[in-house]
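Appendix B, record 7
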Amino acid sequence: MLEKILYTLKWRLMRSQAFAPFDRLIENEKKNIAALEAEREAARQALVRTALEVSPFYRRHYAAAGFTASDIGKLGWFENLPIVPHPFPYRYQR
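Structure tokens (predicted):
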């Protein structure tokens, strides 16, 4: 029994990177809905902010639709975010 516990602890210690996603999953199971929504909203804001700061394409596309960085975080902002049209026919088809 002690050998099994030591083996498990050693294996978990040596393979901690492999358990990180699983540990996050277990942590999220214990969070309430409001905390999960807050994390999701923060991730959305970070993603769109980065797109505006880094990508000239998204800066132009959002500006053409009247969306600015100051709109991020307002009520319904993510739902009002302009959708990027997919080029049709797909350019890289073979």
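Remarks on this record: Residues 32 and 94 are 47 Å apart (CA to CA). The helical segments are 2-14, 16-30, 33-54, 56-64.
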